[in-house]
Amino acid sequence: MIRTFLISLLLLAFAPQLNAQTIAPDKDTNSLKKKFILAKKEFQLFEKQHGAFVKTNNILMHYLTWGSPSGIPLVWVHGSLTNGYEFLEVANKLASAGYFVIAIDYYGHGQTPIPEHDVSLYHVADDIKVLMDSLHIKKAVIGGFSRGGYISTAFYDAYPGMVYGLILEDGGSVAFNSYNHQLPVADVEKKIQSIGLDALPKNIFDSELDAFCSIYDSSENGTQFELLSWINQTKQGKWSIGTDLMSFFNMADNDQYRDLIYNTTKASLFGESMALIEPKIIFRNLSVPVLILDPISENDVFPFEKENAALQKQHPGFIKHVRYDNTAHNIHFSHPQKFTADLIDFLFIIKKPKRRK
């Protein structure tokens, strides 16, 4: 239902030269208004059934749950510009297979605001620890997509004893700037200029209805109530879709992105922590199973297949490296059935770990 919209947002985060405005708004304003009213009711009902908040030292964090608390906990960390609702299409199947699925919203996404103080990926890891403690969960599978994969790796670094295993969907297994630092400086500059961060759309609207109409996919049916989780009210009383996030990532313009690559300590703490995390060090004494889901294509956002293969070779008893050919980045949007099957197979490994010397 919302796959086109989510893919557009992810392209905006990592390849903004591709037009993110791919969804044609429904021209029937009255019809859309009726769907918006229904969507609000459906969203509130869904939140009553699945949504909750936890107070941490950093923020009041929103999260969603599916399945029985007696299942194997899976804490899912979303990618850039999305939120816990990105797991909507696969969560019920994973819950039916035996996971207790918990999908968080980290800073600036969904219903979790950006804190007033500086925060990093490791602050999100601390928030997840508080969430697990509040739910009386001693250990969980920690998984994430893209930036969420890096947060998952940070959690393992900070709290290894609370991890059954890791699921890293195109993120968290290789240092963020590995590919950029392999390129000649001229090629990196050409890439920065082609991305065109200076010309990003602001996505500011006078009303929540206007914001909803701008992203409603008229080629699909239903209320698409989950779109409301991407819409937030600004301090100025307007409505926005991820307006403050690019600055938070240190990717608001070309200069910020250049700093993220070459002058990392000048970046925002959140951006800096993303750029500096080094999985090769964190996994030096790996002691839990890791599932690396690796999309392969000419448009691969993180072309780390060689590094992932080398990491698997270094830890053959712990790491499973699964390639998804002809996939640019977002595996669980593009291949939800195979993605779900791979995570269910990983659940079997968690339940019945192999003996290791």
Describe this structure in words.
Strands 1-2-4-3-5-6-10-11 form an eight-stranded mixed β-sheet, sandwiched between helices. It has a three-stranded antiparallel β-sheet with strand order 7-9-8. The chain has helices spanning 3-14, 29-50, 88-97, 121-134, 147-158, 185-195, 208-215, 245-248, 254-262, 269-276, 279-282, 305-314, 331-334, 336-351; strands at residues 51-55, 60-66, 72-77, 99-104, 140-145, 163-169, 204-205, 232-233, 239-240, 290-296, 319-325. It contains 14 helices and eleven strands. By secondary structure, the protein is of the alpha/beta class. It starts with a helix and ends in a 6-residue tail after the last helix. Helices cover 40% and strands 16% of the residues. The chain has a single domain (3-14, 23-346), classed as 3-Layer(aba) Sandwich (Rossmann fold). α3 runs parallel beside α14 (336-351) and α4 packs across α5. Residues 1-8 and 10-27 have low confidence and may be disordered. It is globular.
